[in-house]
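Exercise 7.
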Amino acid sequence: MIVGSGHSAMTAVIELAEVVRRHPATTVTWVLRRGVIGDTFGGGASDALPQRGALGARAHAAVDAGLATMVTGFRTERVDLDGGRAVLIAEDGRALPPADHVVVLTGFRPDLSFLSEMRLALDPVLQAPLELAPEIDPNVHSCGSVPPHGAAELTHPEEPGLYIVGMKSYGRAPTFLALTGYEQVRSVAAELAGDHDGARRVELVLPETGVCNGAGLADAPEVPEPSGCGSAPAETPPLSLSLNPIGT
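Solution. The predicted structure, written as tokens, is:
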């Protein structure tokens, strides 16, 4: 069972669909909090990032081929156990069939505990730097509409010289692109080297097409929600609830 609707969830669906091809007795259920809308599977051929568009297309193909069963509008209230297997119960009382493994890909927030002694200026909702938060709010922006930014937006006024860059700088916002992180690092490096003009100069053009949807901050299941748009899987491993050990 896969829970989540972003690009990480699509990747899991694609990979597990191959398991089903090899072992037809295996079943895969894809659980989404929101209802299916036109852009559930991303931007497809219209995505300016072709590989991201292809990801949604492959996930769509897996569902169409019956290799994964999609359950939508399912807001998990609790997880029960049935003979050592997980049973997801929704707020509306629906119960899904028992699952051996549940892979939860529903977003995350950065671990800033190692900076607990620092005087960080963070938005209380997004956990992103105060100057950056309005520019990346997933209720307003998609991946392509986030404006290029750098040292000026990443600063913490009470801690000169301290910058949080990359995916962690976005806090809970799922609109991060690797290209954005590269520009952040370039700008911060220029600022630390004393090249203030270089730090303020914009050297990035983001793709404006493509769809970003999935696990965001919106609450209604049928409302389109933004999703991760360039997350690095190696830095954000999925939380896997495995009630039976997976053999090697």
